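User: I'm putting together notes for a lab meeting next week and I want to include a structural view of one of the chains we've been expressing. I don't have a solved structure, so I'd like a prediction I can at least talk through. The sequence is below, exactly as it appears in our construct file.
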Amino acid sequence: MIVEVRSYRIKPGKREEFINLFESRAIPAQRTYGMKVTGPFLDVENPNKFVFLRSFPSLEERERMRDAFYGGELWKNELERLAMPLLESYDVILCEASSGCVFDVNNADKPTPQRPTAA
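Assistant: Thanks for the context. Below is the predicted structure for the 119-residue chain, given as structure tokens.
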């Protein structure tokens, strides 16, 4: 299994807006292409950062799934223009799970729960 550890730095004050877009549109879209997405995990020390994991069965499948997602109509015509202006930078660490890995990506297929909105 191949896992991307993706760390995003969002423009100041825009994390909640980005997370809402990520959870409601980007995660479901990525899952339709077969990607397993776990997270987001909000950085408790930096209000402008979050991390998520994206996993694939193999490097070949990673390339195929990424090409399909980023080449797709939703990304090109909507998500890219909404997400990229909110993003300051991002880093990706590409990992391979060891044979003893205990990380459970099966829960990545569960629906994303709705976040409460601020009153």
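A couple of points you could mention at the meeting. Residues 11 and 21 are 14 Å apart (CA to CA). Strands lie at 2-10, 36-42, 49-56, 87-96.

User: Perfect, that's what I needed.
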